[in-house]
Amino acid sequence: MSEHQPRPAGVNLVTLRRLRILPAALLTAMALTACTAESVEADDPKPTTPASGTTAPSGAPGGAPEEGGLTLADAIKTIPVAEEKRTGYERDSFKHWVDEDSDGCPTRQEVLIAEAVTAPEQGARCTLSGGSWLSYYDEVEVTDAKKLDIDHMVPLAEAWDSGAYDWTPERREAYANDLDAERSLVAVTAKTNRSKADKDPAQWMPPADSATCTYLVDWTATKLRWKLAADQAEQAALLELAEPCTDSTVEYEPAA
Questions:
Q1: For residue 185, which of 113, 193, 213, 237 sits 20 to 30 Å off, Cα-Cα?
Q2: Residues 213, 244: contact at Cβ < 8 Å?
Q3: Residues linked to residue 132 through DSSP beta bridges, in sequence order
Q4: Which regions in the chain score pLDDT beneath 50?
Q5: Residue 68: predicted pLDDT
Q6: Does the predicted TM-score (pTM) go above 0.70?
C-alpha cells in the first residue's frame, strides 16, 4: 500500500537529492580547476544550475514539472472521449471497503490512518479514536473520524459510465479499494462528499479555491490510471477549469 498524504506544499524529493549531490560536484569542479593552468575550452560541459531549495508538489499551483509528468492540459487531452453509459449501474457492482491485506483494517480505515495529520489511536477491529485530518476540498480540520467520508476521486457511478460497465467484478473491486495510487481515495468532510455525489467536474468542484488545481490533477490521474473515458462536456469543463493551473503536472501509473 502506498502512503496517502495531504497536499500541503513540501520539498520535492528530486530537488532534495540534487541539493545533496550538488555541493560535491561543485567541490570536484573547483579542485579540477585549481590543478590546471589551462583555460576552460568552449566545448567543456556547462556547469549545472543549482536547483531551488523547495517547490510546491506536482499538481499544486506553482508545482514544478517532474520527470515523466504531463502538463495538466496535455493529460486531460489524453483521456479518451466517449459517450457515457449508465445502463445497468448498481453501487453493489463495486465491492468496497474490503480488508485486502487481512490486517484487520478495511480500506476506509487504511485511508484514514494514512491521511491523518495527527495519527489516531487504533483499537480492536481497527476502530480509530483521536487524530486529526485536513479535508482539502473545503480546508476544514476534522478531529472525529466519523465525520469524514472516503471519497472515490472518480465516483463509482461515473467510473461505471466511463468504462467500468465493461469490467470484471474483480477489476471493479480493485478500483473501489485502490490503495496503490496516492489520490484515488481521499478523506474529506461528509458534507463535501455528499454534495459531490456522482458528479464530474462539469457539474461539481470543491468549494475551496485552493483545491481546484489539485482536484483536477487527481481526477485526471485517476481517469488515466484506470483507462476511463470522459464525455465531451466533461473534457471541455476540465480544460476550461485547468487554464489557471499552468504549472500543474500529472503523473500516474496504469492500474494492473
A1: 237
A2: yes
A3: 118
A4: 1-66
A5: 56
A6: yes
